Amino acid sequence: MVLQFLPSRLCLPLNAPHFHILPSTSVSLSRPNRRTIPTMSFPSSSSSSSASPSVTDPNKEEEEQGKVAQALKYHHQTKHSFTNYARGPRGLDWANQPNPFRRYISAPLIPLLHFPAEKQAITDDAPLYSSLFHSLPPPKPISQSTISQLFYDSLALSAWKTTGYSTWSLRVNPSSGNLHPTEAYLISPPIQSLSDSPFVAHYAPKEHSLEVRATIPSGFFPKFFPENSFLIGISSIFWREAWKYGERAFRYCNHDVGHAIGAVAMAAATLGWDVKLLDGFGYDDLQKLMGLDIFPEFKVPSRPIKGKFPDIEFEHPDCLLLVFPNGSNQFHVNYKELSSAVKEFLNLEWKGKPNSLSREHVCWDIIYRTAEAVKKPLTVQSGEFPVDQFQSSGICSENSYKGLTVREVVRKRRSAVDMDGVTVMERETFYQILLHCVPSGNGGKHRRQLALPFRALSWDAEVHAALFVHRVVGLPKGLYFLVRNEDHLEELKRATRPEFNWEKPAGCPDDLPLYELATDNCQELAKRLSCHQDIASDGCFSLGMVAHFEPALSDNGAWMYPRLFWETGVLGQVLYLEAHAVGISATGIGCFFDDPVHELLGFRGSKFQSLYHFTIGGPVLDKRIMSLPAYPGPGIDT
Length: 638
Description:
Residues 28-66 are annotated as: Disordered. This protein is of the alpha+beta class.
């Protein structure tokens, strides 16, 4: 029985909140003269030349501990509880809603090619969605067409929606609140019809075009990277998300980074390309490589405050992805030499001035202090870059998929607003979806991230899933647990409630580490834990993603904090695509009561923490909303 494990505070007579207005936890934001704002100045760089875990100098060790403490402080301060929500705005300031589209004014704009979104014949150019989890098609050359296709199927607009006087765009990659803090950059060798020289370009999704920011030295790619490879940089504008969600926004920005990584990895796989995170790079290197040092240093106020802070619209460089032909041999990467070469990017002629996103802003200071603390230093290492062999994923119900191509799935992906509370899922379909959610693929012990799209990440799996099963035919309703790193299994058993069963459910594939914990109808429980949202109980199943949290920070450093959220975002991307591929829908849930989830599972302390919730089921469509094509769209968000 699940109900016997109900957290005692679940019985509180709480009404469902209006999530945009949190008066009980909001901060009164004053508007003092800017000259009197107490500030702390954070340098634009904090990277050292050594990796965090190898710190031996007592001063550096103390500094690293302080950074981990800041990450933990942020995490605990931004938890929702039954009595208080994390601090956020009193209401939505529509006059200052951030522009969702960054542009670099006066930078040359190069249009990319468009592709048909309707039903395609199944070919190497348009493979079945499910086929990518078994093997990748032959790699295609880098060209105007393939680069266009990569962005079109990963980060481009997917549609426009309109109702009444409101019009808004949707994208292939999902985003919390559809606010899209994520920006992307292409760093590439010469590509015919795009550029005769190696270049750095910002991707402009509204125009499906590249804004060329700079040309780079001709010897850069041949010296450091394999043939037929290029780079994609990802950055975040925290203000876009903080406008709506306040202090919790840093979490959501990093969810979105993970979704973007997953989206790029899936689109690249369609072209026969592999994707790997170049995680030896430090924050400084990423900033120079993407030309983001163009933004002035942002001086962080000592408390949340409202005013005109144009510098708050800076982009925080998150990560760098190497895209290269699938099946490539291992190659040598010397991060120290690479970092030295990237320093010369400061001398390049960078084109374009970033556009303004809002007239006024609110600075939630803890976001920027935490972003400073979790900046990754350069990891000085030289050796073979690990290129693990592609590992296919498990199969138990191939017939669950609807015969859709990758493009049909990724471009028709939507975030459901409501679930119908009626749609059911077959047990074999449930198991098939979860087989695509485990990191190591078919056969063997799950730990290393070898299967698509998790293979883009550079660490062993740290994220698991606690599942609330509501409407799966042939499977008892109740609480289940998917162990995505089997090295954690015994630790999880010790950390959770002793009453849990930890038994494999009936018909579960041998290579799927799914366990039944307790059986009961847990629809109301799932709803209450996810901020009283019906969508968590009205689907076929919902889940909370649970990270091996404090040990990951202790073992690696504070910079691992955002990466745990990236992993949840990649997992969430798979759940979105799987749901649409089997003919239903899904939605990520960022609002949940953190510690009551931990209490339900029996977790104490911070060894395991819930970072992201999700729901999958039959969507309720709002017929008042009309869909318009992504390109050409109406041209403006209103």
